[in-house]
Amino acid sequence: QAKESGKRTWCIFSDELAERARIRRETEVDLHRALENNELLTYFQPQMCASTGEIVGCETLLRWKHPTRGLIGPGSFIKHAEDTGFITRLGDWTLREALRVARRFPDNMRVAVNISPLQIHSANLLNTIVNALAVNQIAPSRLELEITESVLLSDTEFTLERLRKFKELGVRISLDDFGTGYSSLSYLRRFPFDKLKIDKGFVQDIDHSEECRAIARATLQLAKALNMVCTAEGVETEGQKQFLTENGCDELQGFLISRPQPLDKLTHLIDIRDVPSGSDEHVEEGDR
Ligand code: C2E
Ligand code: MG
Ligand code: MG
Ligand code: MG
Q1: CA 243 to ligand 3 centroid distance, Å
Q2: CA separation (Å) from 253 to 15, 240, 242, 249?
Q3: What is the Cα–Cα distance from 176 to 114, expressed in whole angstroms?
Q4: CA contacts within 13 A on the Cβ side of 86
Q5: Mind listing the pLDDT tens digit for each residue in 87-140?
Q6: What is the pLDDT of residues 35-66, one digit of tens each?
């Protein structure tokens, strides 16, 4: 009997593995097609200045409008793209697309783009950034690259060197999901990040947990002492907003201010410019 049930367990396990492998293959083929067929979309989530209420930037967050599966969040495809190396192409596309859309932002508003570890290793990234900034006439200081601590785990020296290149260009570097990775503090000493983003895991329990309030407060003090701008992500309640603002958090991002949306759905918060769409193709053509 024990043998039987062992066999059954094995069957279920192997079915699950096969299913996972199938989804994985499908997603990979699908992702290539998605990029060709314009199924990938850039959504934008506003970042608000805590003291003035002004929207000072937007984070670019990818969405996939899948023909049969509906709207899919990055949680289910970024990992695949990283595992297969496709993230390099996808990341280039996202940067170009984010900066193309950012031409419609008000003059000083910043655009943040998430960057995967593999992208940092791609020799092409710097070029893509320089080109996309020039084509869209966006000042480098308006672009923020969001990286996580995992970027710094391997090839640290190489990575820091790359990050310094971006900084020399005038691009800003943010440390995303702060507090969830490893060795955060030693990296803060070795690299001058412009911004630190408190992970939403710490923000979520501010209303209920004294520990979370203590961590949030300490993080804000650390950011201030090291001259970094501090942004809280995942702000959902008035209580969180008030606590963070009172404790010196510079910027707030979260559902309380706005969910990520296509830029056209953010007109109530952002003064969006009309950029003639005919001219983009033309300008971009020369760059390709
Ligand atoms: P992230 O960069 O930390 O982005 C913040 C995530 O928190 C987003 O999830 C956002 O929709 C979500 N969020 C924002 N405000 C709230 C809130 O008030 N409450 C809650 N519960 N969640 C909130 P999303 O869009 O699903 O993206 C997940 C992750 O996927 C991102 O985390 C980022 O690491 C990655 N990602 C998204 N777009 C890209 C991209 O273009 N390139 C790369 N490499 N990664 C991306
Ligand atoms: Mg981010
Ligand atoms: Mg984050
Ligand atoms: Mg995150």
Answers
A1: 19
A2: 41, 11, 13, 11
A3: 9
A4: 18
A5: 999 999 999 999 999 999 999 999 999 999 999 989 899 999 999 999 999 999
A6: 999 999 999 999 999 999 999 999 999 999 99
Question: 3-class SS at 31?
Answer: helix
Which of 98, 115, 262 shows the shortest CA–CA distance to 177?
115
Helix (H, G, I), strand (E, B) or coil at 163: helix
For the CA of 61, the nearest atom of ligand 1:
38
Distances in Å between the Cα of 35 and the Cα atoms of 30, 93, 100 are 9, 8, 16
Q: At what angle do helices 87-102 and 2-36 cross, to 10 degrees?
A: 40
Low-confidence ranges of the chain (pLDDT < 50): 1-2, 278-288
The one-letter code for the residue type at 59 is E
Strand partners, 58: 46, 111
Q: What is the ipTM of this complex?
A: 0.97
CA of 252 to the centre of ligand 4 (A): 15
Q: State how far the alpha carbon of 172 is from the alpha carbons of 188, 218, 274, in Å.
A: 15, 23, 26
> Quick one: how far is CA 103 from the chain centroid?
19
Give the residues across from 72 on adjacent strands. Answer: 64
Q: Which atom of ligand 1 is nearest to the CA of 87?
A: 44
The protein residue whose alpha carbon is closest to atom 21 in ligand 1 is 234
Q: How far is the CA of 176 from the centre of ligand 2 (A)?
A: 6
Contact 280, 100 (CB under 8 A): yes
Residue 65 and residue 244: Cα distance in Å, rounded?
A: 35
Phi (first) and psi of residue 10, to 5 degrees: -60, -40
